[in-house]
Amino acid sequence: MNDNKNVEYFLAKITHYTKTHLKPIHEDDDFLHYRSRLATKAYEGCLAAGNPENLSFEIANDILLDGLRANEFVVLSDLLDREYQTYMQYANRHRLVVLLITCCEPVFNKYVDRQHGHFTQMAALEKELREILTIWFTENMSHPLLRAKKETRMLQPDFL
What we know:
Elements: H1 3-21, H2 23-26, H3 29-48, H4 53-65, H5 72-83, H6 93-111, E1 112-113, E2 118-119, H7 122-139
Antiparallel strand pairs: 1-2
């Protein structure tokens, strides 16, 4: 991808995110463009340094959304939507998130910056959440809020 396409991608992502979750920030075009350019530079710099594309993308996303995701519900909802959607019934998603927040609370507490009201180290936070969620889904496959799965295999997030 060239620089313009990367900026457009990250701009679209942060615009959608702020429109959905942070309406006051959504109207700040300067902020959105600034964050998009920072994320693009980080992504391209990581790739140029020889990092794998998925790691480069993860780092760029951390920079793009740094400090914007301080709500446990939003973080967990986003993670479930991105990586576990095949295991949950969409109509029950909100109830499932409320249920899962309790078992994920120790991880959230580890990464929250109470002084500034946001999470730090989003990549590490999401990695630990994935580990907890994978265990929870594996142990609770018959939970009524989940889709019934016919096969019995080791649960892995959708991104793998």
